[in-house]
Amino acid sequence: MMSAIGRPHPQSRVVFVVVVVVIVVVVAVVVVVVVVATEARTYHPSQAPSAPPAPVRRVLFVGDSLTYVNDLDLHVWHFAEAAGYASPSLFIDRAVKGGAPLKTLWKKTDARQRIAKEGFDVVVLQEDLPETDVATFHDYAARFHEHCQAAGAATVLLMAWPYERLDWISTEGIAEAHGSIASRLGARVAPVGLAWQRALKEKPKTRLYAKDKEHPALLGTYLAAAVVAVKVSPSETALSLSLKAVADIVPETGADILAADFVALDLEFSGLFLDIESGRRQLSIENYFARCVKSIPEFLPLQLGVCCARRGASEGLWELRAHEFNLHPSSRRIFTSDFRSLQFLRTNGFDFNAFFDQGFLCSRLPARDAEKKPPRSSPHLPYASQVMQALLEAKKPLVFHNGLLDLLHLYTNFVSDIPTDHHEFGQAWVAKFPLLFDTRNIAQEGQYNVLQHVGGLTLEELHRHLSGLHASQMPVRFERLGPLPAAGQAHGSSGYDAVLTAEVFVMEMELWLRSEVSESARKRHRKERLKEIEEELQPLDWQAIHERAAALGVSIFRGAVQGRMGGPGGARKKVGEIRADLVSVQYAKEVDEGRPAETSASEKKKKNNNNDNNNDNNNNNNDSNNNNSNNSSTSNNSHPAESCRKRPRAEESTSLLSAEALVSSKVCRRFHNRIAI
């Protein structure tokens, strides 16, 4: 029994083998089925029939050991992967050399050749700024950027950090150097140094530096990678390229300024005054200016509008080219904002998103050497400062509307500190910009008699009124040539406000010049008519003079106070005195009757001679022309005042304003360098 149990039967052994084989086959089939099912459910994204393969985004890092220690580029790739735009569509490579600033990387590495040939979408330039100076950094950053542009790559400037071995420049200095060149080039900045500064301020014991206190520790590289990863993302670099397109308007604006007859400027602010209550009471000029000087440095100019206007080739045509710049301070700045002011701007369409995304750095212009003028082109100035430099050098007339605050903001942000005395400020401004006009001041001077306007003096109201005048009163027209859209909303765009200012200025000065011509003509006609009346009375004897005096109600006696002898009213006047009184009274009577002889006899004679010549020349024309000649002759025989009404003066259809008139005309000189308060 025991042996039977201990030794299996031969048939049992065969059955066992068969069972094992069956089990193995079943397991294999199950595995195959599972694998096939799994393969059927999963595939590489590039194999999906509904999704084409994603384009590879290529990024090149150019730098020194601050980049390759701890493999900054690799950490950036991992951050991009976490953000969802890395694998498999992101390729990162590097061209690095230890201790090498951009100048060395330009001359002694293959970085240039790789940018040109390998089709990178983004190039990250890391300058070790303590190892070089700012001017050299700007020079070679510009060279690399130009090379990147030619290859179709966006440029990101990696702002590094200061370190103890070379402590000549601070974090703020490094940020300023990167910000200014980035603004000029239209590049983006990855502000790693500022991120380090903020981290150390919040947690001073954070170990960002390695033991040599120069290179990054792993945590420092990690923080740097987080900053850079954002700047090489597709959305950020696309914005960088659009910024370059916007930055192209700077040289275009400079060219328009040089070609202009005058330039209208307008600013939008983050607020107006610190002490709102004091604005509700009347202030002297001195106190008002002091209030402005106190408030201006606390607020930020948000946007600068520039409208370059020049007289066109056609009669009465003015061509306008408008540009707009969102202004960013060139260094970190804490400023005040008035909620009502910001709300007002937003209500009127101001684009705050564009303001933050697409800004132009502004800084004060370099001091002018008394003996040596600065070069005409200043490529190292921030973009907005280059525009002001162009205005300073061109010396074109500048036009503002209610422009005192604009002047003060421009002066303190681009020139110098504001003098505390308003006379000193006026002298300092005119020393830089010799000629300005204020459209509100021009309107205040002639609101009723010249502009014939009974409404308010805001920019919109003036523009609405002046644009509605008949063409016989306003023989000017405007052509808005961009690059800003022709239509806009006042106060929502400084560029559009600058256009309105330019148009209001042209229309105001046109009316003033025409008014001056009319006034001069009236004075001339009055003088000539008085002379004619005197000549008519000259041949009359004393009896005829007395009769004429009686008919016109002119006394032939002096007042009783002047003499008690010679008649009931006093002493009798001499004939010459009576004749002089008759001349004045007769002219005044013509004026009162609404028929002043504005056309003198000499002018009528000239017109008649001209018409006679025209009639002689038209004798061979058809009947309609003969009828026109007869009608013209008939009008010349009518009363002089009637003739003036029927025959408009030549200047009524001719524009009088020109670039020369702005400088030399007596009327225009009346408004030189005067600002509305």
Question: Can you describe what's shown?
Answer:
The protein is of the alpha/beta class and 677 residues long. The chain has three domains: 57-246, Rossmann fold (3-Layer(aba) Sandwich); 248-512, 2-Layer Sandwich (Nucleotidyltransferase, domain 5), CATH 3.30.420.10; 542-559 and 569-605 and 636-646, no CATH class. It has helices at 2-6, 10-41, 65-68, 72-83, 102-108, 111-117, 134-151, 171-185, 192-202, 218-231, 234-247, 249-259, 285-295, 339-347, 352-357, 383-394, 404-414, 422-432, 439-446, 459-467, 494-537, 542-552, 575-592, 601-617, 623-636, 640-646, 659-664, 666-669; strands at 57-63, 90-96, 122-127, 154-159, 188-190, 262-269, 301-311, 317-329, 360-362, 398-400, 436-438, 477-483. Strands 6, 7, 8, 9, 10, 11 and 12 form a seven-stranded mixed β-sheet that branches. A five-stranded parallel β-sheet has the order 2-1-3-4-5, sandwiched between helices. A hairpin with a 5-residue loop joins strand 7 (301-311) and strand 8. The protein is elongated and about 120 Å long. 31% of the residues are buried. Mean pLDDT is 78; it is low at 1-8, 29-52, 238-244, 562-566 and 613-651. Residues 589-650 are annotated as: Disordered. Keywords: Membrane, Transmembrane, Transmembrane helix. The chain crosses the membrane at residues 12-37. InterPro entries: CAF1_poly(A)_ribonucleases, RNase_CAF1, RNaseH-like_sf, RNaseH_sf, SGNH_hydro_sf. One of its GO terms (molecular function) is 3'-5'-RNA exonuclease activity.
